[in-house]
Specification:
Two copies of one chain form a homodimer. By secondary structure, chain A is an alpha/beta fold. The first copy, chain A, has helices spanning 16-27, 41-49, 60-65, 79-86, 104-113, 157-169, 179-202, 214-220, 227-236, 238-260, 265-285, and strands at residues 6-12, 31-37, 55-57, 69-72, 95-98, 120-121, 123-126, 146-149, 173-176. In chain A, the strands form two sheets. In chain A, strands 3-2-1-4-5-6 form a six-stranded parallel beta sheet, with helices on both faces. At the A-B interface, helix 7, helix 8, helix 9, helix 10 and helix 11 of A face helix 7, helix 8, helix 9, helix 10 and helix 11 of B.
């Protein structure tokens, strides 16, 4: 990997991911100046006070216009507005990327709204938590995690290289997939678990909720995530999530039918298959454990 | 709470829970002699080597016959066999309890199979993990967690007192509920999350499984639990779990229908409600956080 450095970075949205990205690049000496744009003075103040960004602004176009690399780090629901606002201000050679959890519509919007579609590289660092805001930003948030890049046939090779370098420099494993493929995968690995966790919380009565144990808390931790952000994700990836919900409902319905006819063995096979795979996932992800 | 001590404890099943119970009582000097019964010499050897039990045996009746307090700590599927085997050997004043995850059938079996039904007190310490076996036993496993007692109108008051003292001595919060009520609660707080986690793992293709992040791992951690034990639980609590599955399927179906008609707002309300409740659960459980 060629050693390089970003002169001027513009982070649009200084929350958990945007703030952590700025912090991680600064901690490694990989960036000169960091401009941070946000909609709330209070968040920008936290980002400045924590040393995440050098210059705060409420105007994303002003920040983007000075940058070599622009990163969209707001919830995906704000991306199309942002892209429309920054397009005219961008330097022709500037590379634009994002940290959004959905990709097909984001990439389509970017290629439609930006004056140089080949300079946009969709990316999705699979890191973070149910926490939000720059107060939780951390320079090691991305280390060891996976980042998916979703370039298209229009994307220029040097732009892909820069964005690949960006995430690899922060310790991420980088893989490349098509935008639609990305969304089909994430529907099952991320969006479906979120909806299931929320539904598990929702079926409890208030009185039952006083009896939960550590297993319930782990299983539903992600349900504490921001509902606005997750509604955006559902809006962007509706058909793939609906298909994933279908598959989950199918499994649950077969289990219910088994139990209703007094046949617990009907669940045994699925539980055994799930155990084997779940253990394998742990082993793959934590080779030192 | 009156200071007391158990002269002779018999733990039938020296796995994670039975082993931890023995370790916790010994660490606090609350037990004289610990007899441990198991079906595998290898597990018994680990329990002896780790100092969890004093005397290992393959004969549960022999251990139970010498004890003041007998604790059933095998998977619930073995309880009725165990109860049938130990009944004749028990001392008339011995108290019998268990650590099983279901209660209605366990309590009914115990009251039917034991010569002194009033000496049986159902209990369910909501502690543990997806790990199994005495190698993972720890004296602090129960601290701060909840234990449910399910005495019936037949249960003798001094037996309830002893079992209540037992768990409170180990730092547990103790609450009393009816056996059927226990099973209806646990169907939603524990059994349903387990089946949902297993189903979430099962809907992934092998290729998709290489893209998971920390959220998926948390949400599905419990799916690594022993399928035999969980099939037993489904067998014991089938109707309540089927009703819980129904409620979950209902929520997921409404979300799917919303997304299929392009109405992401259909999920927004549920996500917001779930976030509020999930955050409250964290706040309740971790007052220091």
């Amino acid at each position: 990997m060629k050693p390089r450095k970003i002169d001027t970075l513009a982070v649009l949205g200084v929350g958990l991911l945007g703030g952590s990205l700025a912090a991680a690049l600064r901690a490694r000496g990989l960036v000169g100046r960091v401009l941070g744009a946000g909609r709330r003075e209070s968040s920008l103040k936290v980002a400045v006070d924590r040393g995440l960004i050098d210059e705060p602004t409420l105007d994303p176009a002003a920040a983007a216009g000075e940058a070599d690399l622009v990163v969209l780090a707001t919830p995906v629901g704000q991306f199309s507005d942002l892209l429309a606002r920054i397009g005219a201000a961008l330097r022709p050679d500037a590379v634009v990327t994002d940290v959004g959890s959905t990709k097909a519509q984001v990439v389509a919007d970017a290629e439609r709204l930006l004056p140089h579609p080949g300079r946009f590289v969709g990316s999705h660092p699979i890191a973070g938590s149910e926490k939000r805001g720059p107060a939780f930003a951390a320079p090691d948030l991305f280390e060891g995690a996976l980042c998916l890049l979703t370039p298209t046939e229009r994307t220029e090779a040097d732009a892909v290289q820069l964005v690949r370098w960006l995430w690899m420099s922060l310790g991420m494993r980088v893989r490349q997939v098509g935008p639609a493929e990305h969304d089909a995968i994430l529907a099952r690995t991320s969006h479906l678990p979120h909806l299931a966790a929320a539904a598990l919380v929702d079926v409890l009565t208030d009185s039952q909720a006083t009896f939960i144990g550590p297993g319930f808390l782990d299983t539903t931790r992600i349900a504490a995530g921001d509902p606005g952000m997750w509604t955006d994700i559902c809006r962007h990836n509706g058909p793939a999530i609906a298909a994933a919900l279908d598959a989950l409902i199918d499994r649950l319905t077969r289990m219910r039918e088994g139990l209703q006819r007094g046949d617990a063995d009907a669940v045994a096979e699925l539980l055994a298959r799930a155990q084997t795979r779940r253990r394998a996932l742990d082993a793959e992800r934590r080779p030192d454990a």
